[in-house]
Amino acid sequence: MTSSIRARLTFWYTMMMCAVLIVFALGVLWVQQRFSRSQLDSDLDGIAAATSRVLRTEVAASGDLAAAARETRTVVDVPGRSVAILDGTGRPLAAHWRGLHPSYLPKPSTMPAFTTISDGRHRWRVHVVKNTTGPVAWIVSAAATDEVERERKLLARALLVATPFALFLSAAVCWWVASRALRPVTDMAIQAEAITSRTPDARLRVDGTADELDQVGRAFNRVLERLCAALASQQRFMADASHELRTPISIVRTAADVTLARQGRDEAEYREALSIIADQTSRLRRIVDDLFMLARADTGGYPLRQSLVSLVDVLTDSVTSMKVLAVRHGVALRVGAISDVATIGDETLLRRLLDNLIDNAIKYTPAGGSVVISVQPNDGNVALAVEDTGCGISAADRQRIFERFVRVDATRERSTGAGLGLPIARWIAETHGGTLTVEANAAGGSSFFARLPIVERQSARWIADVDPLSRRLQPSREQAS
Ligand code: ADP
Question: Is 386 close to ligand 1, i.e. is its CB under 6 Å away?
Answer without folding.
Answer: no
